[in-house]
Amino acid sequence: xxxxxxxxxxxxxxxxxxLEQDGLEMWLDDLALLANALQDAEFSxxxxxxxxxxxxxxxxxxxxxxxxxxxxxxxLVSLLARRNSAGLIPGITEVYQxxxxxxxxxxxxxxxxxxxxxxxxxxxxGDLLKSIVGKxxxxxxxxxxxxxGGFVARVxxxxxxxxxxxxxxxxxxxxASR
Length: 178
Hints:
Layout: H1 4-21, H2 24-37, H3 41-48, H4 54-65, H5 71-82, H6 89-104, E1 106-113, H7 119-133, E2 136-143, E3 151-155, E4 158-161, H8 164-177
Parallel strand pairs: 1-2
Antiparallel strand pairs: 1-3, 3-4
C-alpha cells in the first residue's frame, strides 16, 4: 500500500510544474476531475489491478480522459496506474489544494453550526475568522444539531469554539467545582 508521503511528493512535483507553466487553476481542475473519476469503484479497481497489463490501463485512461484533462495530467494518472497507485490521486488533489491555498494566501475553514446559516451570517463569520488569522478565509459549513447554538470553527490547527454546548459544559464544571 502506498504511503501518505507519496501523495505529498507527487502534489509538490505537480505544483512546481503548474507554477512553471502558469497553470495552477488548470491543474486543480484536472486533479479534481481525476479524483472524481476515481470515485467510480470499478474504474479505480481496474487502474490498481496488478493482473491488468500496463498497456490496457494506459489505453483505458487515454480513451476515457484525453478530451477532459491536459496531456501532463493524463501522463500522471498513467504513471500512477503503471505503479498500481492511482488511488493516490485524491490525496494528491488534497495536498495540491493546500499548496495552492498557501501560495495564494488563503486559509480554509470549516464552520460547524447547530442550524444552517445564510450567506450574510457566513460572510460575518468569514470576516471574524479573517481578522483572527490575518488571511483570506474560504469557508465550508456543516450542521451539527448537538451544538445547540453558536458555532465551532476549525482553521488550520486552530479551533474557535463558541458553541452553546461548550458554554453549558463549562458552566457545569464551574458549578461542580464550587
